[in-house]
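Appendix B, Record 12. Input sequence as logged:
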Amino acid sequence: MNESRKTIEFRFERTISAPPGEVFDGWLDPKIPGNPWNAAEKFVLDPKVDGLFYWTLKGTAHYGRFTVVERPGRIQHTWMSPNTLGLESMVTLTFKEEGKDTLMTLVHSGLPDHEVARGHEKGWNYFLGVYREQFGDGSRKPFRWEEAHAPGKK
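Logged structural output:
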């Protein structure tokens, strides 16, 4: 018997001061702060169609499979973690040229309608904020995980 589960979706947009190809490449580069791979304690990343990723942050595993990798416009991959309650969700990123800037959109869909899954909203907002800062004025700022997560900092 198929049980229908209610799911939720989060959508985030950031305007980034760089061309789409640079923003796309930076998202897949573990050296660039703000993408999930940079914050990982350990990771495996194979960004090609049917390539897998796995990363841990504070002991929590995240993993999935790339389903679309179309430079410079789109990345899509499945997403699983304890916070998806065992369900496979989908993350889609698009990179659209807007003058000299890029409109980066991240949609995380198929998440269970549950409190722990709603934590993805805070997580993605955090990552995208740090990532956008990397392109703020064309210069990269040093990034330290400890400073970004200092007690009392939200």
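The beta strands are 7-16, 42-45, 52-57, 60-70, 74-79, 89-98, 101-112.
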